[in-house]
Amino acid sequence: MRKNIILVAYVSLLLLVPNQNLILGNKMTESIIAQTNNTYGTSIDMPLEMIISRRMSIRNFDLTIIVPPELVSKVLWAAYGSSWTGRTVPSFSNYPIVIYVSNETATYKFFPENQSFTLWKDGDHRRFGGSWNIEAPTQLYIVLDTNICPDMLWGSAESGCIIQNIYLIANALNLGTVCQHPNKTDIDQGLGLPLNEKSLYKMPLGYPLSPYTDYQHLVLTNRQSSPELPEIQDSNIPFEDALNSVFRSHEWSENPITKQELSQILWVSYGYSYYEDTAASPPKSHRTVPSAHAYYPMKVYATNSSGVYEYLPEQHTITKINAGDRRSSIAQSSGNPWASSAPFIFVIAYIEDTRPWIGGQDTYTEIGLITQNIYLESAACGLIADWGKADTDEEAMKEALGVTGETELHPVSIITIGHPSTYLHKVEWDETIYQIETNTNSTILNFQFDQPNRRISFNVSGPSETQGFCNVTIPNSLLWGDFTMLIDGNPETTLKQNNNSTHTSLHFTYEILNTLNVQIISEYVIPEFRAWTPTLILMVLMFTLIIHKRKNSKNS
Asked: What are the backbone angles phi and psi of residue 211, rounded to the nearest 5°?
């Protein structure tokens, strides 16, 4: 019996130690971040729109405070990492951007596919880039692999998506950054880059010095609105969830884009922050994207079945410049015929002038900045986006837009927007990802999984006084048994449940009068193994010891 007790105790300890190490490891990580947060705060759970409104360029950093490795890793994941739907940014050419990370001891190459680093070069290489160098605890070098994308302009456009994410995640973590256009030869030679890799930009990363510490200088002001575009609303989607939901698709439902959704998308593309920077002199509102030398040479056009509209960011409004459905002509002239059926096509153009950088690398990078914001806000609004080059027939595009007389205008890119016919929701539980699929003619927002209450919930909306439907497919490994459904708290009578060996399908209909809340409650749910396994092992061990003690008492 004593040998059995020792064996049980030994096995229990083996099972407990890994869990204990994991817990301690998490606590150590949380402790490092908590110490940082106590000083600087954090805003990672803010709605996406707040993070976009807080975006600004920071050029002065506290060199005495290092950026913890956990936060550097978070920044790099947000910039370019793997997500539930693929990657946190779109790509034309199989992700040609490479990121190098330099601190005071070494430079590392980042591998976004598995969130790993490889030592590239020992030593402090943070000061490459010439006279424009801004000192910071960490430096990020944005590099193009020309073997994957030989076109420097469109490679720069792809880098813009990454750069925008770095701006936003840095702000969300109360860090700061700015995009620098450095001496590329100095970086290429200093880092010893392969011949196929060409540096594009450099981004310092660190904690901002006063008065920008904690971004407390930002003061909420009135949000812009107009009769054509409603006031910007904050979604319930945190920035991290939006990053995880970025994906390209052009399979749209017939559900129309609302005025509110159009307002949100146009605002993030090129609008003004609803915060005022009181540390600036005079106080000012930053833009939702940065621009080289703060010039902002871009124009954004939106076109649907009723006409072509130009976005006027200063007034947050639109003006019609061409009547009729021009989507087919715009899609054909851009070389993207698939776009003709999109509910909305956004056209990005730049205005040429004597400034040497207009029309070059920086301009194309700005296209990427705009595009990434549109992808993120589309995810927050329950929409899908797709990005296409529009450099095939400029004159035909200008004719389709109705701007043939604007000789200095150059359309260069399109982005399509629509409601998906199928939503793919990712649920992560106990380090496993489960996929729930919803086919619907409605817009779905605020999807949530509540494990303790065996419940998933979401909101549905669409055109008022129309008939909506949803078909929700749930893996049996997550939720199973009989299901109950509530719509706005009332039992749903149209629910039809079908089961097979792997999934349960729930179909229901509803009349849309306003936004409806749907709750789906299951009879059984996957348990939280990590929470009760150590406790059960301890109970078994204690029970075994008690039995042994009683037997010894009887024998004595």
From this structure: -95, 10
Task: Answer yes or no: CATH 2.60.40 is held by domain 422-523.
Answer: yes
Q: What is the mean pLDDT of residues 188-198?
A: 97
The residue among 288, 248, 234, 181 whose CA lies nearest residue 49 is 234
| Interval 322-338: pLDDT, tens | 999 999 999 999 999 99
Dihedral angle at the C-alpha atoms of 139, 141, 142, 146, nearest 10 degrees? -170
Q: Nearest-CA neighbor of 129 among 196, 188, 192, 72?
A: 188
Q: In 3-state terms, the chain is what percent helix, strand and coil (to 5)? A: 35, 35, 35
**Cβ neighbours of residue 267 closer than 8 Å, sequence gap 6 or more:** 224, 229, 232, 288, 316, 377
Residues sharing a CB contact under 8 Å with residue 28, sequence separation 6 or more, in sequence order? none
Continuous H helices in 102-227: 152-172, 184-191
pLDDT digits (tens, 9 = 90+) for 410-454: 999 999 999 998 888 888 888 888 999 999 888 888 889 999 999
Mean pLDDT over residues 213-239, rounded?
A: 92
| Backbone CA torsion sign across 371, 280, 312, 201 | negative
Query: Is 473 in contact with 517 (CB distance < 8 Å)?
Result: no
**Does the 213-418 domain belong in CATH 3.40.109.10?**
yes
Task: Select from 259, 246, 271, 248 the least CA-distant residue to 415.
Answer: 248
Which of 388-410 are b and which e, b meaning 16 or more Cβ less than 10 Å from the residue's Cβ? bbbeeebebbbbbbbbeeeeebb
Pick the more confident residue, 543 or 315. Answer: 315
Tell me which of 36 and 311 has the higher pLDDT.
311
Q: Are 419 and 257 a contacting pair, CB within 8 Å? A: yes
CA distance 268 to 224: 12
Higher pLDDT, 211 or 5: 211
- pLDDT-derived band at 536 (thresholds 50, 70, 90) equals low
In this structure, the number of other CB atoms found within 10 A of the CB of residue 289 comes to 25
Task: Write the pLDDT tens digit of every residue in 239-271.
Answer: 888 998 888 888 888 788 999 999 999 999 999
Q: Which CATH architecture has domain 57-206?
A: 3-Layer(aba) Sandwich (3.40)
CA 37 to CA 446: how far, in whole Å? 27
Write the DSSP string, 464-508. TTEEEEEEEEEETTTEEEEEEEEETTEE-SS-EEEE-SSEEEEEE
- Residue 96 and residue 148 in contact, taking contact as beta carbons nearer than 8 Å: yes
